[in-house]
Structures are given as C-alpha cells and as structure tokens.
Amino acid sequence: MFLSELRIENFRAFGEKEEALVLALRPGLTALVGENDTGKTAVIDALRLALGTRDQEFFRVEESDFHQPSGAAAHRNEIKIRCKFEDLTLADKAAFAEHLTYEDQDGGKAAVLYVNWKAVAGPQAPRQRRFTSIEARSGKAADGPQFDQAAKTLLCATYLRPLRDAERAMSAGRGSRLSQILQYTKEIKEHGQDYDRDKGPPDDLSMLSVLGIGDFMNALLSNHKGVQTARENLNAEYLERLSFSGDKLEGHISVSGSKGDPGVRLRLLLEKLDLELRDGAAPETPPNRGLGSNNMLFMACELLLLGSEAGGFPLLLIEEPEAHLHPQRQLRLMQFLQEKVKELRTDNQKIQIILTTHSPNLASAIELDNLVFMHGRKAFPLAVGHTGLDKSDYGFLARFLDVTKANLFFARGLLIVEGDAENILIPTLARLMERDLTANGVSIVNVGGTGLSRFARIYLRKHPEKDGTIDVPVACIADFDVMPDCGPEIIGTVKPGETWPEKRRWRAKKDFTSEELQQRRDEIRAKASSQKVQTFVADQWTLEYDLAFAGLAEDMWIAAHLAVADERINTGKLSKESVARNAMKSYANLSEGKPSPDELASHVYALVAPGSGVSKAITAQYLACLLEGRARKGQLSPDALRGMLPKYIVGAIEYVTAKIEPGEGTQKEAASDG
Fold this sequence. Notes:
Layout: E1 2-9, E2 21-24, E3 29-33, H1 40-51, E4 78-86, H2 90-95, E5 100-105, E6 108-121, E7 132-137, H3 149-155, E8 158-160, H4 166-169, H5 177-183, H6 186-190, H7 210-222, H8 225-242, H9 262-270, H10 291-308, E9 315-319, H11 327-340, E10 352-356, H12 360-365, E11 371-375, E12 378-381, H13 391-400, E13 413-417, H14 420-432, E14 442-446, H15 452-456, H16 464-467, E15 474-478, H17 487-490, H18 514-526, E16 533-537, H19 543-564, H20 566-570, H21 576-592, H22 597-606, H23 616-632, H24 638-644, H25 647-656
Parallel strand pairs: 3-10, 3-11, 8-9, 9-10, 13-14, 13-15, 15-16
Antiparallel strand pairs: 1-2, 1-4, 4-6, 5-6, 6-7, 11-12
Helix pairs in contact: 5-9, 14-23, 19-21, 19-22, 19-23
C-alpha cells in the first residue's frame, strides 16, 4: 500500500476548512520544495505524529503546534491529521480488516485505509501543564474503531531528521539506531540456529544465530576456569565465613543479559555492535570519514531495513537529505533513491519516500512528476495533470531543468529570461532602480532561448478553481524578434539596395500590418500569461536594440567597444579609459548625422549582432559597470534610469519586486504592481 493523501487541519501554519492542507501523493518518491516557512517540516512532523516512527522517539504535542489564525487571540484546541492509504495488499487487508473503508474505484469497490489522528487540548489549569488527549481512528469521517498498538506498529514510518548525527546513530550503545535496525532485519532474525545448553554447540559454529552465538559465548564465559576459581574463592574464603549458621551465603557469577526474553537478549547483543565506513582498498586502516559519508552509511542502513523486512508500512521520511553531502554525492543519492522506490520487497510492496529539500542540486535531479511545490501554506503537486504543462513539456524539462534553473522552486518571485545578457544585466538594473532582486527573494532563470514558456507554465495550475493558484509573481522577458525596416541593411543581413529574399528566417516591420504586429505580440504573451505568470515582450526588437532605442544608446555603444577590446584590456595592452574615450568620439560622429531612433539603435545593435564576433554577455557586463559608476557619482538617479529603460524591462522588474528604500536591511514581500 502507499500513502495517497494527507490532510492537515489546525496544525502550526495550516488552518481549517479552506485553509487546511490537502496533499495528494504518488507511489515512490515525493520531494517537497519551496522557500522557508512554507510548511515542509510541518508535513513531515504531521506524519510523525499520525503514524509514529520506528525509532520510537517520543514526540510531544506542544501548545505552539495548535494553529493560531491571523488576528486571533488564542490557538485552536483541536488538531486533525488524516492519512489515506490505497493499493492495499492481501496482507494489508488482513492486518487492518476491521479498519477498512470500501470506496468506488474504476467501476468497483476498492479497500482503502484511513487513519484519523486527533489531538484535543483540555482546559488550561492555573500553574499546570495543559492536558492533551490523543486518539487515532479509522474511517473516512473518523467513525471507525481506534487503532490498537499492534496496528499502530505496522504503520510506523522511518524518520531521518535534518542535521542528523549519523556517526552516533551507527555507534554501539544503549538504544543505538544500528541495534534497532539490525534487530528487525530479516537476515538477523532468520539466519542460524539457537544454542542448546544440553546438546552443546553445532560442529560448525557459523550455523549459530546471533542470539545462539551470544548464548554460547555466555556459557563459555560462565564456565571459564578463571571465573569458576574466582567464584569458589569468593564463597570459601569470604561468604562462608560471613554466613550465619543455617543461613549460608553463596555467590554465583553470570553474564549480564544472559537470561530473560530472547528479544531483549538479542537487543543487548546488537547494542555492542559498531558500524564504520572504511576504504575498501585498505580495510585495515582506521575509519576516517566525514559527516557526509557517514550520512550515506546511515541512510543505506535504514533502506536495508525497509527493503528487506516483510510486513509493516515501508515509508521513509527524510528531512534535507543534502545535509553534509557535496553536490555530486547529492546527485548520486537522488539517482539511487529514485531507483530504490521501484524495487519490490519480498512482500510485493515498494518503499515510499517523502523528503524535504532546499537544494537546487537535488531538485534538478528529481523528476518533475515527483515534486510538490510548497508556497503560501499550500501544496502544489507538479505532476502531469496538475500544472499548465503538456505531457511533451515534461520530457523537455527533464533534459533542460538543470541546477542553474532549479532555483525557481525556492523563490518569492521569478524572472525568466532568454539569454546571458539579460541574466547579467537585469540584477544590476533592478538594484539601481531600488528594486533589488536578492532583497526581494527573486530568482532569475536563464533558459537560453529555449522553452521560456515551458518553464513558466510550471507555475500555472490546470484547475485553479479547485487547487488555487501559486501566489508567486513570474515574469517572462521575451524578444519581439521583428527588425526595424532599416535594420537588415545596417547590421549587414542584406546589402544596401538589395532585394530582400522571399524565404528568410528574419522578419521586419514592413512584413506586417499594424494589426498583424499586435497579433504577433499577443501570441507571444499568450504562451505564458495567466494566473500569476506574465510575459513581457520587447517594445521593439531585442534587448540590446531596445536599450539603445529607449535611452541608453551611448552607454551601449561604449560598452560594446569595451567588449571588442576586452582581451586587450585584460592583458594590459589597452586601458578602459582610452577605449571609452575613443568610443565616445565615434558615437558623437555617428550622432552628427542625425539618424532616426531606429537607425541609431540599429547601428548600436550592429556592434553585437550575430556574426559580429562580439559577446553580448561581455557587453552586458561592461554596461552594468558603466551604469553603476554613473549612479555612484550621482549622475544617474533611480527615476532617471527608469525613464531611460525599455518599458517592458521596467514592467517585468516591478512586477516581481517591491521597492527597497536605500539602506533598508529587511526583506520585503514580493509584490505585483504591474
């Protein structure tokens, strides 16, 4: 069986009714992603409360766990957590026979299991701790019988806390996690035979069970000549002389833990074991592994138990699996976990894993189908059928959603751009406009001219009327890709006076009527403009052209000349100052001819156009430095810069940010004022 749905009411940030959290889950692996304070840990803790954990760690319900609505003076006094399990095996149905609910499914009746966990806070007595009553019942409406301890044990999950001390968990000692894992591992329980005191050990000692080895060792130790002699001396020389007549004192030496319940004796034996990670090429050297490697060892042991035992619900909860792991190890771990959930156990069940992460590295390695985006105290599955993506989009994103783009899952606002120049320049423009992206928690994602709308549609919900919308402003910045009529000749696409070929990939304004131009703009917007996603299309043509056209022609001209001379500047053959002075002179010469705005901007763009050999990214770097320098000198105010920028760039930045006052250190909520 697997956990298919989780509903949480009045627990921490989650409220009730429409404010309750409802999370649909799939078999296999589910990763909860999102920024801090969105409820990822609360989901894990709710499952720990409702199902219990195998380490049997006591998890107390605190006053702060009860939800306090915004503006309310008091906390709610009742927490409800409901878990729904589907695809029950015959063994599951037998184990939970009295708790099953039968629901319509695919034209028939299917057995499902509901676990309704409830905590009710009693009245607060003066100077006393408030009593909280807890119960767990079955039935969709919690109208079934309560779960007894045996049933609860079958539902227990395995939990790996964040920043876990793996080395300690794997070390010998009372209650060690290693001893708990080994005690319930079938290889430990099933292999070997017990030691018979009357018959003695078998000829082949390797045939003894772990408990048999312990019992045999205890017998050898108890019967050891030295131990026997010490006992005889103790009795003859001391206790006999201290005894009263008719009341003889006599001592017996036995091994601690050698008697009593077999389960207890086995646990005491296993608590003596250490697990260390050694180099396979040099197994005799002392272990010298860091936190990351020991965490891998710890997770491997937990998965050994989940994958090998028969019976019980194989659910693994992991908070921040990236803890202590370097990026390549994180990718290897996620690859392994996604393979492990596909394997059948001996009882024909598969492991289900629910994890939380803040790592773009991990998020990029997890299939989009298995991600759940947490935002605004709501859960938004990103699987097929829940988003605005088509099935074909998922294959595309599996190829191109890398670690540099996966930060989109952890942002308060998002700018999606098509090139390196935008990626480099826009953060500087936003900061100079007092709309700092970092202070607003805004990520910028460069999709490199491929699939801009596909990345944006991750944030669109297929059924917003039912699921709600993701309240994260997303701005897509798209080129218009229509040249001015003077552009082809100026940038060298065609020769002066040459007839334009009929079949060509580029388009100019004279190829369209004004209505067709507007239709083209609307079509680009329509690819991703809905809910909180908006596409901002270039006012004229493309970024560099529009910057020059709007008011930064001279700055762009200088930046492009600096980019041309970049290698010579870096090797000390030229100075930036001399290159800039020459560029200013050549720009003045260009301006003397009084070109139209279209012609001027086209001449500027020609310096960085495809085929020019000049890097747009390096040009953007120099332009950012020029603008920052002017701002530092007081020559460029935020309002003045805003008036010199293309409207679509200003609109996109303002859509995903709130204004940051100079010197302000607090982070504001991203606001949509576009």
